[in-house]
TrEMBL record:
<dbReference type="InterPro" id="IPR010982">
    <property type="entry name" value="Lambda_DNA-bd_dom_sf"/>
</dbReference>
<dbReference type="GO" id="GO:0003700">
    <property type="term" value="F:DNA-binding transcription factor activity"/>
</dbReference>
<dbReference type="InterPro" id="IPR046335">
    <property type="entry name" value="LacI/GalR-like_sensor"/>
</dbReference>
<dbReference type="InterPro" id="IPR028082">
    <property type="entry name" value="Peripla_BP_I"/>
</dbReference>
<dbReference type="Pfam" id="PF13377">
    <property type="entry name" value="Peripla_BP_3"/>
</dbReference>
<feature type="domain" description="HTH lacI-type">
    <location>
        <begin position="14"/>
        <end position="68"/>
    </location>
</feature>
<dbReference type="GO" id="GO:0000976">
    <property type="term" value="F:transcription cis-regulatory region binding"/>
</dbReference>
<protein>
    <submittedName>
        <fullName>LacI family transcriptional regulator</fullName>
    </submittedName>
</protein>
<keyword id="KW-0805">Transcription regulation</keyword>
<dbReference type="InterPro" id="IPR000843">
    <property type="entry name" value="HTH_LacI"/>
</dbReference>
<keyword id="KW-0804">Transcription</keyword>
<keyword id="KW-0238">DNA-binding</keyword>
<dbReference type="Pfam" id="PF00356">
    <property type="entry name" value="LacI"/>
</dbReference>
């Protein structure tokens, strides 16, 4: 193929009119299908999608954005791309919003306000239809940028005061209280909290503070030993933290973990040391990960509303972009799952 042929081929972009002609519909019907697929009949939608697939058509979203001053993308910032808890929320959001013709623009902050600020600045330059952030802790500049924009903002996975716009989540402090209360009811009197990155993970910090407050109320004095594993491989860090805890506080009889992965590491170390769970030490995690009911013994944990948050956030986004009113704060609660790791004989 010579250069002229290659150049001519590169400029022959498939257009919406080409799709409309092959599907035997109007260009406006194709446009409606791309923007609001639910408003097109199933039969027409299948014809249009078939034409799109045949021609390899890629819609020019920026062209529509210039006319509407908005792209059909939703900016989403999560603390971590590898944390399965956030992954399930984002996956649920994508399914719900994708069905309405929106796509997610995903970034992560690595629990750093400066990183979040950089991602938010970049996303705002793309004129998103809405922004979704994780938690309530943001830099002053991030809050200023979002407050000065007219973009709807949904903060998720947390409850608290002074939200930017709409808040969807649950109380992490109440989670910590529930975990501590459960261990005390199981007979524990010397309780530790093992977390990771507590200096930057505000939600884990709140759970730790809630457990400390509950133990103070229930036992009359401070009975919480707090260990921060820091960044790194959580299961390995939990092994070391568990070993350090047994060395420094051998009378520990209950442990609250910042997440189920930490608990999994400690369970393995307990088995290697011949420590009976829960008879010697009761353990409770957070997250209700897929493996949590398959450990030995099955892990007591807190089930956060991961998918529910994704669905409600998607609903809030759609309501806001359509100009409908929305409650400022939505508390979705959580569930404590009592399993064998805390159920003593």
């Amino acid at each position: 193929m010579n250069n002229k042929s290659r150049q001519r081929r590169s400029t022959q972009r498939v257009t919406m009119n080409d799709v409309a002609k092959l599907a035997d519909v109007s260009a406006s019907t194709v446009s409606l299908y791309l923007r609001k697929p639910d408003e097109v009949s199933k039969a027409l939608g299948q014809r249009i999608q078939g034409a799109i697939n045949t021609l390899g058509y890629v819609p020019n979203l920026m062209a529509g954005a210039l006319a509407a001053a908005r792209t059909r993308v939703i900016g989403v910032v999560v603390p971590s791309m590898v944390n399965a808890i956030f992954a399930s929320t984002v996956n649920t959001m994508q399914k719900a919003l994708g069905a309405q013709g929106y796509q997610l623009l995903l970034g992560h902050s690595d629990y750093a306000e400066a990183e979040e600020e950089a991602v938010v600045r970049t996303f705002l330059s793309w004129s998103p239809s809405a922004m979704v952030l994780t938690g309530l802790s943001h830099s002053r500049e991030t809050r200023r940028m979002l407050s000065n924009s007219d973009v709807p903002v949904i903060e998720m996975w947390e409850l608290g005061s002074n939200p930017l716009d709409t808040l969807v989540g649950f109380s992490h402090r109440d989670v910590g209280r529930a975990q501590a209360r459960h261990l005390v009811e199981a007979g524990c009197r010397k309780v530790a909290f093992i977390g990771t990155r507590l200096s930057v993970d505000e939600r884990a910090k709140q759970r730790c503070a809630g457990s400390e407050a509950a133990l103070m109320d229930l036992l009359g004095s401070r009975h919480t030993r707090v260990i921060d594993c820091g960044p790194g491989r959580m299961a390995e860090a939990a092994n070391q933290a568990f070993a350090d805890l047994l060395h420094s506080h051998p009378d520990t009889d209950g442990i609250i973990f910042g997440n189920d992965m930490l608990a999994l590491g400690a369970l393995g170390e307990a088995q290697r040391r011949g420590i009976r769970i829960p008879d010697d030490i009761a353990m409770i995690g957070f997250g209700d990960m897929d493996f949590s009911n398959c450990t030995l013994p099955p892990l007591s944990t807190i089930r956060p509303p991961r998918e529910e948050i994704g669905n409600v956030v998607a609903e809030c986004v759609l309501q806001r972009v359509q100009g409908r009113p929305q409650e400022a704060c939505l508390d979705l609660g959580f569930e404590l799952l009592a399993r064998a790791s805390t159920l003593r004989r």
